[in-house]
Write a structure and sequence with these properties.
This protein has eleven helices and no strands. By secondary structure, the chain is mostly helical.
Length: 176
């Protein structure tokens, strides 16, 4: 940590340097869960929270994939808007579900104002976070998500629409 702080003090631009995969030091520190190193980089430059690597991932994605709670908190405190970054895998909420990090999901949903656009964002396969949790059979995550009023209402509405479609289809088949 002391080396990192000294390096950043003498060469603040180090926070912006990227490797061959487009990753800056904050990506790596976030993935490894080095909260103090993350703090040092954020003190030097908070904008590195939004640096995309070649896979369109930001440091928050790396922290979420590994369930690095302390790092997630620091990144959100520095740039709360980083939660809104989407890529082919969907949102950081999708990554929480995909990698089975319920506590990270709770932290994200409780730390910032989450709107329906983020709650119902879809990944490349068209899955919302609830669909993904159901597909992966993550019972605790499903229960938690259904406790969220917007998600519960949408789930009920979706089931009602599906039931109505089945009724209309049955009536149409009866006519024939």
């Amino acid at each position: 940590l002391q080396f990192c702080e000294t390096l950043l003090k003498n060469k603040p631009s180090f926070t912006n340097e990227v490797d061959s995969k487009g990753r800056c030091p904050l990506h790596l520190a976030s993935a490894e869960g080095h909260t103090d190193v993350v703090k040092a980089h954020l003190l030097a430059n908070q904008d590195v929270c939004l640096v995309f690597d070649k896979d369109d991932m930001i440091p928050l994605h790396f922290a979420v994939i590994r369930g690095r709670m302390g790092v997630i908190k620091e990144l959100l405190n520095a740039r709360p808007d980083s939660i809104r970054v989407l890529n082919d895998d969907g949102s950081v909420l999708h990554l929480c579900v995909l990698y089975n990090h319920l506590e990270s999901l709770k932290l994200l949903l409780e730390s910032v104002i989450v709107d329906s656009q983020l709650l119902f964002a879809k990944d490349r396969e068209g899955n919302t976070i609830l669909h993904l949790a159901i597909r992966l059979k993550q019972i605790k995550t499903i229960k938690y998500l259904l406790l969220q009023p917007e998600i519960r209402t949408a789930a009920i509405t979706f089931e009602a629409v599906r039931a109505l479609r089945e009724i209309l289809l049955a009536l149409k088949l009866k006519k024939c």
